[in-house]
């Protein structure tokens, strides 16, 4: 038998690389929890987080964190931005709840805009489509009653790119009853958390759209915002007005965000199995009282969120590093 001629053989193809997505939930000032988790992750990796992932996607407060990561800004700098600007974005006032229930959104977007400018610098004014960072931000069009996914970098072709990065973040964070809606053009835009408070499934769809057949290659690390609480009291029969649904114990907006987040995590885990990891921690009743809803920025709330981030990271550290290294 003649020996097999291997002279024309080619090198075996390189293994298909994984596609890693960092998905960051919304949650107002509780985005500080998210940034504190990422501080610990970045310390382990010893490199900017954007070098470890293919796409960073965020909603609301998560959009601000995601934009920082996508532009190579350290997680520590992002966490410091929350500490510095949190009390300006959510100034404490006994009139806030009255305004929220009856008159108008209690918070101005201007302090958040200032935080974006300080964190991102000139990059904040760039259109999404022309920004080099692999970033995605979720927004809802109130006018069209549909989601808007703004993307940049390699993903610019699979999303929308006609907003500046700053406006995309402001729109994604325009939570109804907290901030006024945004109107950068002909349509009104509001918080992306209405449809994708946990944006991991949107991220999965984007990498599938760009790369095709990406389900087997997807590795998703999701970071929450330390919610919802471990439990709420059962609602007894009775009349439920709009105002009653806005009470802290019944808050309809928070219920919507939390239920969507749970659904997204459940589906992502079903689809990806061990290739999906969610870093989060449900607060105890006492912790939830200190943390408030989305707008508690006291020293006690801040330190509680930092302590919870440490616990959450230690519990999921091995799983996260296995997906990124």
Mind sketching the topology for me?
Blueprint: E1 19-24, H1 31-45, E2 55-59, H2 61-70, H3 75-89, H4 96-103, H5 110-120, E3 135-141, E4 146-151, H6 165-172, E5 189-191, H7 193-196, H8 200-211, E6 218-223, H9 242-245, H10 252-272, E7 276-279, H11 285-291, H12 299-324
Parallel strand pairs: 1-2, 1-6, 2-3, 6-7
Antiparallel strand pairs: 3-4, 3-5
Helix pairs in contact: 1-3, 1-12, 2-6, 3-5
Order of helices and strands: EHEHHHHEEHEHHEHHEHH
Summing up helix and strand content along with how strands pair, one would put the structural category as alpha/beta
Give the low-confidence spans.
98-103
Tally the helices: what do you get?
12
Q: How much of the sequence is in beta strands? A: 5-15%
Q: How confident overall, as mean pLDDT?
A: 88
Label the overall shape: globular
Question: What is the number of beta strands?
Answer: 7
Biggest sheet overview: 7 strands, mixed
Radius of gyration computed on alpha carbons: 21 Å
Could you give the distance between the termini? 46 Å
- How much helix is in the residues? 40-55%
Verbal overview:
The chain is α/β, with parallel strands linked by helices. It has helices at residues 31-45, 61-70, 75-89, 96-103, 110-120, 165-172, 193-196, 200-211, 242-245, 252-272, 285-291, 299-324; strands at residues 19-24, 55-59, 135-141, 146-151, 189-191, 218-223, 276-279. Helix 1 (31-45) runs antiparallel to helix 3, helix 2 packs antiparallel against helix 6 and helix 3 runs antiparallel to helix 5. The longest helix is centred in the C-terminal third of the chain and has 26 residues, at 299-324. It is globular and about 55 Å long.
């Amino acid at each position: 038998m003649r020996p097999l001629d291997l002279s024309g053989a080619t090198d075996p193809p390189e293994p298909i690389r994984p596609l890693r997505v960092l998905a960051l939930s919304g949650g107002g000032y509780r985005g500080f929890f998210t940034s504190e988790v990422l501080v610990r992750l970045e310390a382990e990796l010893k490199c900017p987080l954007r070098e470890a992932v293919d796409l960073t996607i965020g909603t609301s407060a998560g959009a601000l964190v995601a934009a920082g990561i996508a532009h190579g800004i350290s997680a520590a700098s992002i966490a410091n931005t929350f500490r510095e600007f949190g009390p300006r974005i959510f100034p404490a006032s006994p009139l806030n709840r009255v305004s929220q229930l009856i008159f108008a959104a209690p918070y101005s977007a201007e302090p958040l805009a200032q935080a974006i400018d300080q964190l991102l610098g000139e990059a904040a004014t760039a259109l999404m489509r022309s920004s080099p960072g692999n970033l995605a931000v979720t927004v809802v069009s109130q006018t069209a009653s549909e989601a808007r996914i703004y993307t940049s970098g390699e993903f610019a072709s699979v999303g929308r790119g006609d907003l500046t990065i700053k406006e995309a973040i402001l729109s994604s964070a325009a939570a109804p009853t907290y901030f006024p809606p945004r109107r950068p053009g002909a349509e009104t835009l509001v918080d992306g958390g209405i449809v994708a408070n946990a944006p991991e499934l949107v991220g999965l769809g984007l990498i599938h759209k760009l790369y095709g057949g990406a389900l087997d290659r997807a590795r998703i690390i999701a970071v929450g915002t330390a919610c919802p609480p471990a439990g709420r009291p059962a609602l007894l029969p009775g009349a439920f007005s709009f105002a009653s649904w806005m009470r802290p114990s019944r808050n309809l907006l928070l219920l919507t965000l939390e239920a969507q987040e749970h659904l997204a995590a459940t589906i992502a885990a079903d689809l990806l199995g061990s290739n999906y990891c969610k870093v989060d921690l449900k607060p105890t009743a006492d912790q939830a009282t200190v943390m408030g809803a989305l707008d508690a920025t006291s020293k006690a709330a801040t330190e509680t969120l930092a302590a919870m981030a440490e616990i959450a990271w230690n519990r999921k550290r091995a799983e996260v590093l296995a997906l990124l290294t």
